[in-house]
C-alpha cells in the first residue's frame, strides 16, 4: 500500500498541549511525499506550556487538506467556542479524507458537529463529555471509525499516528518508523498512566486538582451543545 503526496494539516491554538501536536507530527513527517502544514488563525507564534510554535498557514489561506489533526490541551475550550475554527473544520471536512484528533482535540471536532454518530476517544478525564455531542465514546488508545480517527490523551498521539501511518503506507513502513523513533514505552510507574489501574489515592488527587477545570468544561460543553443545535451542518 502506498499513499503519498498528502496535504496534512495540524490545527493549533493557544494553550494547546505540545506533545499532542509534536508526537504525531514527528511520525507523519516520515510519510514520503507528504506536505505538512501548521494551521492557525494568524501567523503569530502560538504558545502553550511556555513553548511557541510558528504557524505556516492561516485558516483563510489553508489549502484543502487530505488529513486534519486537532490536538488538545486547556485551550481546546476556547477553540470549542471559536466560530472561525469551527467553520474552518466544517468546510475542510467536505473534501477531507481523514478527520482526526488527539486528546481533547476530539471535543473541538465534536463542537463542530463532526463526531456525531462516530465512535471516538479522548483524554480519560474528558471521555464522558463526548456523548453530549452525539459521539459514541470508546475507551481505547486509538479509535478508528470510517474516516474519523481519534487518539486518547497526550502520549496516545504517537500510537494514533503510527496507526494512521500503517493505514496510509502499510504496516511494514509504520514498523520501520516506530523502530527509528525507538518507540518502546517502559514507564517508570507501570499502571499509573491509566485511571483503570492507578492507585485510588493518585486518581482521587488528580480528579481533585482538575475540579475547577472540569467545572469550566461543563459550562463550555453546555454552550457548545446549545450552539450546535442551531447549526445546519
From TrEMBL:
Q: Where is the DJ-1/PfpI domain?
A: 8-166
Highest rank taxon of the organism: Bacteria
InterPro entries (UniProt xref): Class_I_gatase-like, DJ-1/PfpI, INH-QAR
Q: Which CDD domains match?
A: GATase1_PfpI_2 (cd03139)
Q: Which Pfam families match?
A: DJ-1_PfpI
**This protein is called what?**
DJ-1/PfpI family protein
Q: Which organism is it from?
A: Pseudoroseomonas ludipueritiae
Amino acid at each position: 500500500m502506498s499513499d503519498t503526496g498528502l496535504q496534512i494539516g495540524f490545527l493549533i491554538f493557544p494553550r494547546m498541549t505540545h506533545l499532542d501536536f509534536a508526537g504525531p507530527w514527528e511520525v507523519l513527517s516520515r510519510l514520503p511525499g507528504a506536505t505538512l502544514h501548521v494551521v492557525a488563525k494568524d501567523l503569530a507564534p502560538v504558545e502553550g506550556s511556555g513553548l511557541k510554535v510558528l504557524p505556516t498557514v492561516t485558516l483563510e489561506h489553508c489549502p484543502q487538506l487530505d488529513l486534519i489533526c486537532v490536538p488538545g490541551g486547556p485551550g481546546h475550550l476556547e477553540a470549542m467556542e471559536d466560530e472561525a475554527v469551527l467553520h474552518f473544520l466544517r468546510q475542510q471536512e467536505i473534501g477531507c479524507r481523514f478527520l482526526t484528533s488527539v486528546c481533547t482535540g476530539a471535543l473541538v471536532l465534536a463542537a463542530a458537529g463532526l463526531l456525531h454518530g462516530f465512535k471516538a476517544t479522548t483524554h480519560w478525564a474528558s471521555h464522558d463529555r463526548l456523548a453530549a455531542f452525539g459521539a459514541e465514546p470508546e475507551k481505547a488508545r486509538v479509535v478508528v471509525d470510517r474516516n474519523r480517527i481519534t487518539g486518547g490523551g497526550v502520549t496516545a498521539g504517537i500510537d494514533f499516528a503510527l496507526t494512521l501511518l500503517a493505514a496510509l503506507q502499510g504496516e511494514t513502513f509504520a514498523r520501520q518508523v516506530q523502530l527509528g523513533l525507538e518507540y518502546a514505552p517502559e514507564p517508570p510507574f507501570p499502571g499509573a498512566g491509566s485511571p483503570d489501574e492507578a492507585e485510588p489515592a493518585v486518581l482521587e488527587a488528580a480528579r481533585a486538582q482538575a475540579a475547577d477545570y472540569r467545572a469550566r468544561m461543563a459550562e463550555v460543553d453546555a454552550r457548545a451543545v446549545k450552539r450546535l443545535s442551531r447549526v445546519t451542518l
